[in-house]
């Protein structure tokens, strides 16, 4: 009996979770009809981590604003980061949700120099 077994598998790893307390990760993505609004999230972030986060209001059908750790904008262009965040969150969020996300940035540098 010659039986051939065939299997295809994929492994996915994601770091996007629903909002919990304590909420401080790198990002909070706030739905338009979420039970907590951008101003309340800003005040909470300021109370827990003074001067470390900024609220960015966005024009999006499901997302009202994103709370972002300020240091991320020191490493990445604001518009680029926000477009990536909105694109990735769009399929996961509904208007009543608040998502939190861990975002790690790894910079890769390669230089070529003249040898004398």
From TrEMBL:
It comes from the Bacteria. This is Uncharacterized protein. It comes from Paenibacillus naphthalenovorans.
């Amino acid at each position: 009996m010659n039986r051939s077994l065939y299997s295809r598998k994929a492994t996915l790893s994601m770091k996007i979770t629903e909002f919990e307390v304590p909420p401080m990760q790198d990002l909070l993505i706030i739905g338009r009809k979420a039970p907590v609004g951008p101003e309340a999230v800003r005040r909470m972030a300021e109370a827990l981590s003074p001067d470390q986060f900024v609220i960015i209001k966005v024009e999006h059908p499901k997302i009202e604003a994103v709370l972002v750790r300020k240091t991320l904008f020191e490493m990445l262009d604001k518009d680029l980061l926000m477009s990536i965040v909105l694109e990735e969150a769009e399929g996961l969020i509904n208007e009543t949700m608040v998502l939190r996300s861990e975002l790690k940035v790894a910079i890769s540098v390669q230089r070529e120099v003249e040898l004398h």
